[in-house]
Structure formats: structure tokens, C-alpha cells
Amino acid sequence: MNLTIKYFGLLAEVTQRSEETLVFTKSTVQHLLEDLYSKYPKLKEKDFQVAQNLEIVAKDTILTDEEIALLPPFSGG
Amino acid sequence: MNLTIKYFGLLAEVTQRSEETLVFTKSTVQHLLEDLYSKYPKLKEKDFQVAQNLEIVAKDTILTDEEIALLPPFSGG
Amino acid sequence: MKEKKAKNVFVEGAISAEFIGNSIAKHQSKTTIGAHNIFLGQVRADQIDGKAITAIEYTAHQDMANEKFFEIREATFVKFNLTCMHIYHSLGAVNAGEICLFVFVSSPRRKEVFKALEFVVEEIKAKVPVFGKELFEDESHQWKVNS
Amino acid sequence: MKEKKAKNVFVEGAISAEFIGNSIAKHQSKTTIGAHNIFLGQVRADQIDGKAITAIEYTAHQDMANEKFFEIREATFVKFNLTCMHIYHSLGAVNAGEICLFVFVSSPRRKEVFKALEFVVEEIKAKVPVFGKELFEDESHQWKVNS
């Protein structure tokens, strides 16, 4: 499947991009994160949540082919 | 002593005045109220507090020769 | 008489939205402030026995009220970590839809402003001798009772 | 994708005091309202390691943030008896002293607005993906953490 991955705030600094598209064959958010940690080792030190299709999801969530967003701690207001 | 008595809100309607000066010889707020009830019988039906020199006082408070105010329930804001 | 330190909180007639906007603008040079909280009391056109309220006419024991506003102000600064506080209350007629009470508190932190603002507004309602005369469209009236 | 009902809460740059004043003025035709409560978030010029914050640059996951603002709005109307509610949040740079968040709730009764406003502001802080980059006078930066 084709996954669009978006990086926000501090995480976009770590990955040096705000968005990328990956072709991905495994099934869960956790699997995806393992791949991303290999690609961006510094990501592993950072605190963040994962949203799939605009909703925060747990690590064992099955990936659909929708948008994945990596969100550092919120600091609005 | 000379007492200045001020009436506010609904009470000024009952007494038909906003202020009057009385020469008074007895000692407590309660004594004063008894005199005022004789003068303005409808006052007795009304809910109010008494302030002496800008502070709410109890009925057994000794009168000084300062201002007395009759205050109906507050409805600011 | 005690020393008078209280300033006059009362303004004649309604408090305009523009006045409130200007008051907010004046706080933008105070860069230790992180949170403002503003309460506005607005006159409702309540229907009572089929008649609408068109305005409230406010009177007050002004000297006592200003003393009480001052005491509330002092107590609030002791209880809460505020940078500044402003209170304005109308006297005279305020039409339905117009603003009669403007309370403005500011602090470095938001938790403080929420607690402080509610405290100030409840204290005003309970302790300040202000009296509202509700005027109806047929020129009759009744005296407002706070709930 | 779920049906998009959320409107855009974001405004580019700071929220002006004049905008807030105008927003208040627009509510004066709503004569069932008795109480307004307004929260304003303002950027502080905090000193960190001897350097002052000059601005915060806000970014957001805008689609998700607008969804969350909408969910917060819906939940607030269910929980509290409100006449209306408005939320505006800045994107991009907001200088120290300027306003980055404007939350405005109105109700017939004051008790409702106090509870509702604090609920909305805390929900925004907890649930809306907005990110503040604190810019210092020497052009370094750090990422804001809400407390």
C-alpha cells in the first residue's frame, strides 16, 4: 500500500521533511515505526503520538492506506 | 444625634425619598428600624440590609452619628 | 472615615465593545501576561408576563460600592497570582443587548485567571450594593433579583 | 473519510484587539444572552537561559485540528447551555504581547459560561495538534511545551 506520512513540529526537524510517501507491505503502526526508526534513528528519542486518518491510534492498530501523522506534544494556545 | 439615612432601589420607592436626616436619641439599629417601620409601614414587608458608614451591620449594632443606608437585595452585574 | 483608596468603578450608561477592545489592546505591551479572562454581563430582553425587558436602570450606593469593589480587588490579588485586574460597572440605563459589567483579569498562567475571574464576579454579585430596575416596553418596571 | 463539517478555526498571524472588539459588538443583537466569557492566550516574552522569546511560530495539522476543534465545540454544546461559541487560533508568527488564542462563549446565565470556557480551553490544550516554536532574539528556537 501507499502511505502518506506527515511529520509535524520538532519531528519535521528530525526527519528534515514535512511529508513523504512510502510503499509499505507490513500491517501495523508498530511495524511502520520500526522502519521509520531505522531510517531516522533520532526519532526514537522523541515523544510523539500517531494519528491515522486524523484520529490518534494505538501502536497495534492495523494500517489502512490512509494518512499517517506523527505528532509531537501539542502546544497550542 | 443627627442621622443621615439613605434609601436605595425599591426602598426609595417605598419611602418616596432617597435620603433624610433624623434627630435620634435611642441607641441601636433595631431602635431606628422600629421608628422607621412606624413612619413607613410598608418597609416592614421588605427584605433589606443595613449599612452604617459603608459596612453592613447587625440589628443590635450601636448607632454612631454616621450615615445609615437601607439596602435591598443586590442585583449588580 | 477610613482612608479612601478606592477608585471609581462606575461608568455612565452601557460599556461599549470598542472600550473593551481598547482595554485589551492596552495590555499588549505587558509581555509577562500569558492569559486574559474577561467576563461581560449583558442585559437580557427577558419576557415576563408577556412583556419584554427593554433596559435595566442601575443605581448604587456609590461610595460603599466603590469600597467593596476595592476590597474585592485587594482580596483577589492576595488569593491569585494576577498581573492586573479591571472592573467597570454601568450606572443609569443600559438597553437589552448592551453590556453593564466588564471584569478583566490577566496572569502569566491560565489556571489563575479562570479561578480569579469567577471569584471576582461572584463577589461582586454578593457584596456590592448595586440595584437594577428592569424597565418594560409598557413603561412599567420591576426590581431585578440576582440568581 | 468522515463528512467534513468543521470550519476553519485558524487565522494567519496574531488576533487583533479590534477583531475581538468587533466580535463582542456582533453579539449585542442577541438579547437572550446574559453573560459572555472570553479567554485570550497571549505570547509571553519569557527569559530562558538569558534569552527572551520574541515570538511563537505556530504550525498545525490543520485538517485534524479543525476536526478536533469541531468535536470540542459539539461536546461543549451538549454539556453546557450555551447560546454561542467562537474559537480562533493563530498560525504563523505571533509576537510577544500579541494574542494567539481567542475563545468566546455566551449563555443566558453566568454559571454556564465559566464552566464551559475552562472546559473548552483545557480541551484545546489537550486535544488539538498545534505546535508552537518559540523564537529567541538571537534567532535560535525551542519547541513550546504546554504546562
Polypeptide structure, described:
The complex is a heterotetramer, with two copies of chain A (77 residues) and two copies of chain C (147 residues). Chain A has 77 residues and is of the alpha+beta class. Chain A has a single domain (2-71), classed as Ubiquitin-like (UB roll). Chain A has helices at 10-15, 29-39; strands spanning 2-7, 19-23, 49-52, 55-57, 68-71. A five-stranded mixed β-sheet of chain A has the order 2-1-5-3-4. The longest helix of chain A has 11 residues, at 29-39. The model of chain A has no long low-confidence stretch (mean pLDDT 95). With 147 residues, chain C is of the alpha+beta class. Chain C has a single domain (10-143), classed as Aldehyde Oxidoreductase, domain 3. Chain C is globular, with a radius of gyration of 16 Å. Chain C starts with 9 loop residues before the first strand and ends with a strand. Chains C and D meet through helix 1, strand 2 and helix 3 of C and helix 1, strand 2 and helix 3 of D.
Q: Which structural traits does this protein have?
A:
A: 77 residues; alpha+beta; Ubiquitin-like (UB roll); five-stranded mixed sheet; C: 147 residues; Aldehyde Oxidoreductase, domain 3; eight-stranded mixed sheet; 3 helices; globular
- Helix share, percent of chain C: 25-40%
Overall geometry of chain A: globular
Q: What would CATH call the architecture of chain A?
A: Roll
Low-confidence stretches of chain A: none
Biggest interface, which chains? C-D, 40 and 40 residues
CATH third-level topology of chain A:
Ubiquitin-like (UB roll)
Under CATH at level 1, the class of chain A stands as Alpha Beta
Question: What is the CATH T-level topology of chain C?
Answer: Aldehyde Oxidoreductase, domain 3
Main beta-sheet strand count, sense and barrel state of chain C: 8 strands, mixed
Which radius of gyration of chain C do the C-alpha atoms yield? Answer: 16 Å
Oligomer: heterotetramer
Q: What is the terminal separation of chain A in angstroms?
A: 37 Å
**Residue windows where pLDDT falls under 50 for at least 5 positions of chain C:** none
- The span between the termini of chain C is 33 Å
CATH architecture of chain C: Alpha-Beta Complex
Mean pLDDT of chain A: 95
Please report the total strand number of chain A as a whole number.
5
Q: What structural category do the secondary elements of chain C indicate?
A: alpha+beta
Q: Output mean pLDDT of chain C.
A: 95
